[in-house]
Amino acid sequence: MTGNDELSAELSAAATSIAPAFGINLASVKLLSHSENVVLALTDDDGERYAMRLHRPGYNTVDEMESEVEFVESLRRFGVPVPRCIATESGGHYTPVDVGGTPHQVGVIGWVEGSSLGGPLDGGGPGIVEHYRVIGELAAQIRAHNATWEPSERFTRRRWDADGLVGEAPVWDRFWEVDQLNPEQRALFTEAREFLVGVLGSLPTNDDHFGLIHSDLHLGNVMANGSDLTVIDFDDAGYGWFVHELAVALHPMLGEPEEAAARAAMLEGYRSVHEFSPGEEALIDVFLAMRSLMIVGWLAARPEVPVYARFDEVLAEIEQHIRAFLDSI
């Protein structure tokens, strides 16, 4: 993980006040990222490192966050490389803190060595295509985990089903109606939504096709330490189609020279661990379009994230993708 030194006094005070609740004798704190969630790098007086996350208010309830920990810890026991969740001294894994008059829930994980695949790649490490082979393996392991694990009765996470993606109140908002759209984009995205309502509404949601997934397995949520990859940030984990997982992972490669090679490597890696049917493969482009449209709703609701400054450019790219998709069906 990498960070910078732009840490506000409020965030520093919050980390200092909260660290003892996790049994951490804080020696230093740095800002890692400040977008929808705030992530801080902590070092204790023994030199051990942690990542502290101040969650975006109103997105997940404490019960949903504790369910996230339950899921992540079960994946870790299953053998999926994920961070270690740190419990509080009083039990549970979250504690509240006030920052600038706004309450946040705070969680801590063990440090993950390496750097995000969403940033510049290490010239001495594997290329992106080889990383996609491993990403496919990891996505398949998460799918295989569904067959072996029974969540607790208190477990609760959102559903990325037809209602959650293209219903009247989708999880990431009504992408076809956001204020930033021009009339042509609004009409185009409405047309795409109508098509996706029909397709997703017809897809099975039985255990063979649908289950607990990471749901946001883009390159920024995969840490690379040489050839070793670790999956981080299960903030959006929930119940969804397994093909959705792969489309989200592949989406950053749209339009890149290595897109086809990355897709092939990802599928090869996936199928080395778990079956992935031709029918599922045929749906990847549908879910790639779905991911593009989801980003519209997500970004419109998050003006605090850096990429929001490029919203018009992002919209133009997504418009191009959706036009090409609708022309292909």
Detailed description of the structure:
It is a single chain. With 329 residues, the chain is α+β, with helices and mostly antiparallel strands. The protein folds into 2 domains: 9-112, Phosphorylase Kinase, domain 1 (2-Layer Sandwich), CATH 3.30.200; 116-328, Aminoglycoside 3'-phosphotransferase, Chain: A, domain 2, CATH 3.90.1200. It is built from 10 helices and 12 strands. The chain has helices at residues 9-18, 62-78, 128-146, 162-166, 183-202, 242-250, 259-271, 278-281, 284-300, 311-328, and strands spanning 26-34, 38-44, 49-54, 85-86, 95-99, 102-110, 115-116, 159-160, 210-213, 222-225, 228-231, 238-241. The strands form 3 sheets. Strands 1, 2, 3, 4, 5 and 6 form a 6-stranded antiparallel sheet that branches. Helix 3 (128-146) packs antiparallel against helix 6 (242-250), helix 5 packs across helix 10 and helix 6 (242-250) crosses helix 9. The chain is globular and about 60 Å long. The relative contact order is 0.13.
CATH class of the largest domain: Alpha Beta
Q: Rough shape?
A: globular
The largest sheet is: 6 strands, antiparallel
User: Cα distance, first to last residue?
Assistant: 41 Å
Strand fraction band?
A: 15-25%
Second CATH tier, the architecture of the largest domain: Alpha-Beta Complex
**Helix and strand pattern:** HEEEHEEEEHEHHEEEEHHHHH
Rg for CA atoms: 20 Å
Low-pLDDT stretches are 1-5
From the 3D structure, determine the CATH topology of the largest domain: Aminoglycoside 3'-phosphotransferase, Chain: A, domain 2
Category from helices, strands and their pairing: alpha+beta
How many structural domains? 2
Report the total helices: 10
Report mean pLDDT, rounded to a whole number. 94
**What is the fourth-level CATH superfamily of the largest domain?**
Aminoglycoside phosphotransferase (APH), C-terminal lobe
Number of strands: 12
| Residue share in helix | 40-55%
